[in-house]
Amino acid sequence: MSGVLAVGPAASSDTELEPPAMARALRMSLSRLRPGRLAGALAAVLASAAFVAAPAAADPTPTPSGAAEQPAEDAAGSVSWSVQPSTANGPDGRTAFTYDLEPGGTVSDVVRVNNFSDTPQVFRVYSQDAINTPEGGFSLLEGSETPVGAGLWAAVDHAQVEVPAGGHVDLPFTLTVPANATPGDHAGGIVASLTDVVTEENDNQVLVENRVGTRIYLRVAGELSPSVRIQAVSASFDGGWIPFTGGDLTVGYELENTGNVRLTGSQLVDVEGPLGIGLKSVHPDELPELLPGQKYTVTVEATGVQRLGRVTARLTVDPSSLNVPEGSPEPPSVTGVASAWAIPWPELVVLLVVVVLLWMLRLRSRGRRRRAAEAIAAAEARGRAAAAAELQAPRVIAVVTGGLLALLALFGPGGGLTATASERPPGPGEMDVTVTVPSTTPTGDDTGDDSGDDSGDDGDDSGDDGAAGGDEDGAGEHPPTGADIAGWAGLGALLLVFGTLMARSMRGTDEAAA
């Protein structure tokens, strides 16, 4: 035999408080059960029935509204019922049983079970201790577990009761506080449960038990010491992939009531970035009721938290006691800290794209500037070459002109070389000699004239020869004259000018080429 738990519908109330009605189902596979064993199986299921309460009320103080609780239905939806505080004269508007007793004290009360269906129903009625669910709801221990607190101290007169169709039954019960009971709050509940047989989609028959109950709040006289503790604080970040929109920071922690008074309270979460930069402040709703000795997990979500690397969540819980006399001590505030990485991946991707684009633009700009500089340098080189070519022509002309002037100075009339061979008048003791070459054709006229002239000239020739001999012997090489020195100086000046023009022309050509 195997069992599966299933949750049934919970009752509700039209008052401002959530009702204490609760329901839960226990399923058992009956596909292999024989008809003769069905009664035994039903009894076993009833003995181990489970119970789940409705969510805790923000303020469980009774409200004298007199409104009856809304009925709960069984798994098949054919039977509905409810449980509520009552008196011998009927319900008095209470939503829970609330007592203040001394250790060893006793109180008697009445609980009413209402049957809203068209057929009579038999309900199992019992009491159990209260607990908090992991999410903070109000619940009771499983029916198979043994109570040790208010569920044990409340004794209902009947374990089972038959309620007529559309009717109700008032059951008296007594709550007795042990003499050694600890001071503070003790919570429990009184339950009415009903079992039904349900056929699932796969034709597998299961037993479903639904429970509906009402709460018991008992405060035992003595010193009240409210306190709360935060533990297991954690933080996680979900940033998404949309840049500059922030992400969600989820903060979870476990809140434990370490005192002896029921507590609620407010909570605050401050999200900080590096160097304490404030990013977000979250004020969640009031905490649900936390029973003494119980704990539950709280989850707070902060949206729009910017991705700044390491973010820190600073949690502050300001607890407050429920239903305590004026002047009673209040629990101190508690804090917790948790951190999480909020790495700005989308922003880093955007930054990387921007850097790559800027780098590409820089490379393109540098290429343009380099090509422009090369074009400018080429244009300047062409300009220098053209300018050098323009300057070269007059320099060449000047050089050629200087060379021609130098040649004219050397070999022209009155030049240094021709001046040494120029004619000059004969000096003292010198004679001018004229040599006449005889004609090859003898004539009469030539014979007579030449003889006379030759004879006359012989004397002159002899004299010239003597003078010439004397000149060759005495003069030979004559010292340079002023004309010679002037010629040589002009030649040197022309050569100097020519060399300077040639050197400057060659340097200008080299610069233009560079």
What does the model show?
The protein is of the alpha+beta class and 514 residues long. Among the domains are: 81-220, Immunoglobulins (Immunoglobulin-like, Sandwich); 228-343, Immunoglobulin-like; 351-384. The chain has helices at 38-47, 150-153, 345-411, 416-419, 444-474, 482-513, and strands at 3-6, 25-28, 72-73, 80-86, 97-101, 106-115, 121-132, 138-140, 154-156, 160-163, 168-176, 184-199, 205-220, 228-238, 247-257, 263-272, 278-282, 287-290, 295-305, 309-321, 334-342. A hairpin with a 5-residue loop joins strand 7 (121-132) and strand 8. Helix 3 runs antiparallel to helix 6 (482-513).
Present the secondary structure layout.
Elements: E1 3-6, E2 25-28, H1 38-47, E3 72-73, E4 80-86, E5 97-101, E6 106-115, E7 121-132, E8 138-140, H2 150-153, E9 154-156, E10 160-163, E11 168-176, E12 184-199, E13 205-220, E14 228-238, E15 247-257, E16 263-272, E17 278-282, E18 287-290, E19 295-305, E20 309-321, E21 334-342, H3 345-411, H4 416-419, H5 444-474, H6 482-513
Helix pairs in contact: 3-6
